[in-house]
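If you are new to this repository, start here. Below is one unmodified record pulled from the training split, so you can see the exact layout before writing a loader.
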Amino acid sequence: MAGLETERLLLRQFGEQDRERLIRICNHGEMHRFTNIPYPYGEKDADDFIARCAKERVKGTAFHFAVAGKEDNLLMGACAVMQVDAAGGFAELGFMLGKEYRGKGYMEEALKELLGFAFSELKLKLVGARVDRENRKSIRLMEKLGAEYRGELIEKYDDGRPRISRMYSIRKFDSFN
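And here is the target side for that same chain:
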């Protein structure tokens, strides 16, 4: 499958060329604070992630995209529809963006394109998202996307840290016909 494209961005498969930038993005403390990304994040973590993205795409269980600048093709972040349940028409949204790219509308642009893909190509009916309730920027992003707030969930990150997640859902007919 070819990648996706917006006015300013390329959404493409991850490759080895993304390893160093992925490590740098993931080692920012705020990234660890709000995600399950391990810290410190090393070469093995990056290699495992890139390999997992390819395997999950082949199986059809997740579609991870490297978010890159259209002009230079350099990695800025990532977005994905994960835990795809094609029969049920459901998946979960995931995203991250390097600190230097935040506040410029890049992730909103990427997620609109990704959601269009999820609803038109994957034929999904509902995409859910979990956002740490302390992550104000991601909460604002969900609001900009027209996501419906569904409540909170108390859970733990993989490393045992407690997390209270705000749950959101986006339905095909809400914004992405």
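Two things worth knowing about this chain: The chain has one domain: 4-175. The first strand starts at residue 4 and ends at 5.
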